[in-house]
Design goal:
The protein is mainly α. The chain contains five helices and two strands; from the N terminus they run ααββααα. Helix 2 packs across helix 5.
Amino acid sequence: MRDILFIASYLKEMYDEIYEIRSEKDPNRLTEMKLHKLLYFAQKTHYTHFGEWLFNDDFEGWKHGPVNVRVRNLYPYFLSTEDELSDKEEYTLREVIYDFGELSAWELRKLSH
């Protein structure tokens, strides 16, 4: 099980690569709200597929859905890491990005409520 900040960093990097995000001003960038939703779905998806949690942190139920306070406090300042994802972790993040990445944060909000 990984630290949520490690997973959040990789999720953002993968998202930016898949959707060719080159600037924080890109209208399709990964917003904080969308990041929380994708992390929530990644945790759920990973447990469904592999019977284990993807990361070691919980979410709080906020007005617009699940929020991780550590991610909230550091967004958007995640550090790149030299450590690698496992095959299972990479599979989960790619699946979530491809399944949910094109949805807006507000559409994901509806799904997470």
